[in-house]
Amino acid sequence: MDTDKLLLDEQAIQIKAKLFRGFADPSRLMLIEVLRNGKRSVGELVEITGLSQPNVSNHLRCLADCNLVKKERDGRYIYYSLSDPRITMILQKSEQLLSEVAKGVYNCTRYDSTNDLENNE
Amino acid sequence: MDTDKLLLDEQAIQIKAKLFRGFADPSRLMLIEVLRNGKRSVGELVEITGLSQPNVSNHLRCLADCNLVKKERDGRYIYYSLSDPRITMILQKSEQLLSEVAKGVYNCTRYDSTNDLENNE
DNA sequence: ATTTTATATCACTATATAATAATATATTAA
DNA sequence: TTAATATATTATTATATAGTGATATAAAAT
Fold it and tell me: What is the pLDDT of residues A13-25, one digit of tens each?
């Protein structure tokens, strides 16, 4: 009914969706997971993730723009770290949720390029 | 170092990113927010969100495939509801996080079509 | 000053996917 | 059965965006 419409603050939804987009890409999520263990330079992140350097920089900029990570220069190196411990909490909650719904998410190939399943539902 | 690489279970990352993609689209997030108040038929969701019926159905299918929502038929109506209370918990945590980083997320126009900001950083 | 190293930016391409329009399916009512 | 209603599917289009290669900027070392 109309009580629902009141709860649908368009702008709040947009912002919240944007936050989740920070987590919604495998490369960015990889970076965030690594940063859960502490600050890392861009070079280290490149080394650990195996992503290209420009790709890492681009994703870090995206995350930094959204305040999900913060940067700190030390000489030639720039160290990135998570901006808020609640980011880790959200990831933890998500892991708990996934332990139950993982199967469904795994089977969700709706938007997958690797759509090579042979099971028909 | 290498200890990080061990933590980077590729498949786990992919699945987790997929979960967040469920939340990362404004239309889907809207649907989820509405469902936080209880089960709704497709028609009600169309009415409340203002999205087109096929669009709602498509997003619901995506969410259902990923086990984020469950469906239940009653006559001609199909009622959708959140599959797990932890979904709500994740959203709550995210709201708390957003209360602090919202400004940054709001200003994050990196991938925005509505890129009409006049402030230069 | 020049070179080396670390990171960022930019232009471009390819892919993913959100939205739409048209149509199909399923359930109930007449 | 036929009509009406509710939901799902499909094909298509347009847009968003991830990744790459080339280059630029910045700091330190020679």
Answer: 988 998 999 999 9
Rounded to whole angstroms, how far apart are CA atoms A66 and B111? 11
Calpha distance B70→B49 (Å, rounded): 19
Q: What is the mean pLDDT of chain A?
A: 83
A60 beta carbon to strand C: under 7 Å = yes
B66-78 burial, b for 16+ CB within 10 Å, e for fewer?
bbbbebeeeeeeb
| B20–A23 C-beta distance less than 8 A | yes
Does B97 contact A107 at a Cβ distance shorter than 8 Å? no
Q: In angstroms, how far is D28 C1' from B12 CA?
A: 40
- Look at residue A113 in the predicted model and tell me its pLDDT: 38
**What is the pTM (predicted TM-score) of this model?**
0.83
